[in-house]
């Protein structure tokens, strides 16, 4: 991984248990020149993103062009191409030839590994992979479901589930209730370890909430075993903590820095913000993909989103001026810029489009100056 990519690919996951076979198999499949397209497919919270991150770190020395992490999400093909062009500093020029320019540029570069995390839009990713098919890129997708041909599907299930074991011995008794789901077990383990509750009390809560009942769910992220734990926590969170969870649930970006999170949540006191984040971290309600940056797992996000709303325009009004003042923050705020682009396109907001374009020109000029071009 290049020094210039520092912070753009998540750090190596800690405590990855029960994945020795999967890591070895995937590592053998991901080599320059093999033109691999692999989709890690599994239910919400099964560990797809963590596995993709771990294998990326394992094989990074093979890819001279580096390993790169993008959140694919529901965005259209144009937005996906735009975010690759922005990351790799490829001149965007005429939108009609964006794919051609990107493919031509990638074709002159060294082999690289690209992870498209949280894939949702099959048609958009199909076009992206086909348009860039001749470039020396190895692709890894993570998805709850993947309806793409020409992609090798690698199923991801809970570690040690087939053997009937659990990686969370502290809450072993809750394993049947939580259906071996790693995300739910990790949250339950954190709640018990922090002293917030006990295994017996949590089991009674899960039983009373009907987690063992068969029910129709709305979609792949609507998991009762996780939403029941979120409900338990939600009833015990302070108002500030709930507001922070709301911001993280509604953001279209990957993660939010602590200062922006506090501002968007309306928390003025640094002490209160720090205390709230400390408890959210202790209960494993939030994730910290990078230092001092926070996010929700997609399944937790789904559970929280059912309880509250936060207008997307507030994110746009926060992040565009922030990047205009501090364009050096682009690397860590890229997904917020992509979200702003998507929002502006969807709402035909010309004013936002023009501001985003001016920002992108500024960034391109800044990059050319840094390279002495």
The shape, in one word, is globular
Portion of residues in beta strands equals 5-15%
* Approximate helicity band: 40-55%
What's the N-to-C terminus distance? 24 Å
CATH class of the largest domain: Alpha Beta
Main sheet record: 5 strands, parallel
In short:
By secondary structure, the protein is α/β, with parallel strands linked by helices.
Can you give a write-up of this model?
The chain is α/β, with parallel strands linked by helices and 373 residues long. The protein folds into 4 domains: 3-155, P-loop containing nucleotide triphosphate hydrolases (Rossmann fold, 3-Layer(aba) Sandwich); 169-234, no CATH class; 239-305, Arc Repressor Mutant, subunit A (Orthogonal Bundle); 312-370, no CATH class. Helices cover 48% and strands 11% of the residues. It is built from 15 helices and 8 strands. The strands form 2 sheets. It has a 5-stranded parallel beta sheet, sandwiched between helices. Helix 5 links the parallel strand 3 and strand 4. Helix 3 (77-88) packs across helix 5 (122-131) and helix 3 runs antiparallel to helix 14. The longest helix has 21 residues, at 350-370. The chain is globular. Mean pLDDT is 87; it is low at 1-7 and 368-373.
């Amino acid at each position: 991984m290049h020094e210039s990519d520092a912070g753009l690919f998540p750090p190596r996951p800690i405590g990855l248990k029960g994945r020795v076979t999967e890591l070895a198999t995937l590592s053998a499949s991901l080599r320059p020149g093999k033109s691999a397209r692999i989709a890690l497919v599994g239910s919400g919270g099964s560990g797809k993103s963590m596995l993709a991150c771990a294998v990326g770190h394992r094989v990074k020395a093979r890819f001279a062009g580096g390993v790169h992490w993008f959140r694919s999400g529901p965005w259209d093909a144009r937005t996906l191409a735009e975010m690759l062009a922005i990351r790799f500093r490829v001149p965007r020029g005429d939108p009609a030839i964006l794919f051609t320019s990107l493919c031509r540029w990638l074709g002159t570069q060294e082999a690289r590994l690209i992870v498209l995390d949280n894939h949702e839009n099959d048609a958009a990713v199909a076009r992206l992979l086909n348009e860039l098919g001749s470039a020396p890129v190895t692709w890894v997708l993570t998805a709850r479901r993947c309806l793409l041909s020409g992609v090798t599907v690698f199923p991801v299930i809970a570690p040690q589930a087939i053997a009937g074991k659990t990686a969370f011995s502290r809450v072993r008794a809750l394993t049947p209730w939580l259906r071996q789901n790693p995300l739910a077990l990790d949250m339950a383990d954190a709640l018990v370890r922090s002293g917030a509750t006990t295994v017996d009390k949590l089991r009674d809560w899960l039983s009373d909430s009907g987690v063992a009942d068969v029910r129709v769910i709305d979609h792949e992220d609507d998991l009762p075993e996780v939403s029941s734990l979120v409900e338990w926590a939600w009833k015990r969170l302070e108002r500030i903590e709930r507001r922070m969870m709301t911001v993280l649930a509604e953001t279209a970006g990957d993660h939010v820095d602590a200062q922006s999170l506090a501002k968007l949540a309306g928390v003025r006191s640094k002490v209160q913000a720090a205390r709230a984040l400390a408890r959210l971290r202790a209960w494993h309600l939030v994730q910290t993909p990078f230092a001092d940056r926070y996010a929700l797992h997609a399944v937790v996000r789904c559970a929280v989103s059912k309880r509250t709303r936060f207008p997307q325009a507030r994110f746009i009004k926060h992040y565009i001026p922030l990047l205009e003042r501090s364009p050096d923050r682009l690397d860590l705020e890229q997904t917020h810029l992509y979200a702003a682009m998507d929002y502006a396109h969807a709402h035909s907001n010309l004013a936002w489009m023009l501001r985003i374009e001016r920002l992108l020109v500024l960034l391109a000029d800044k990059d050319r100056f840094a390279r002495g071009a």
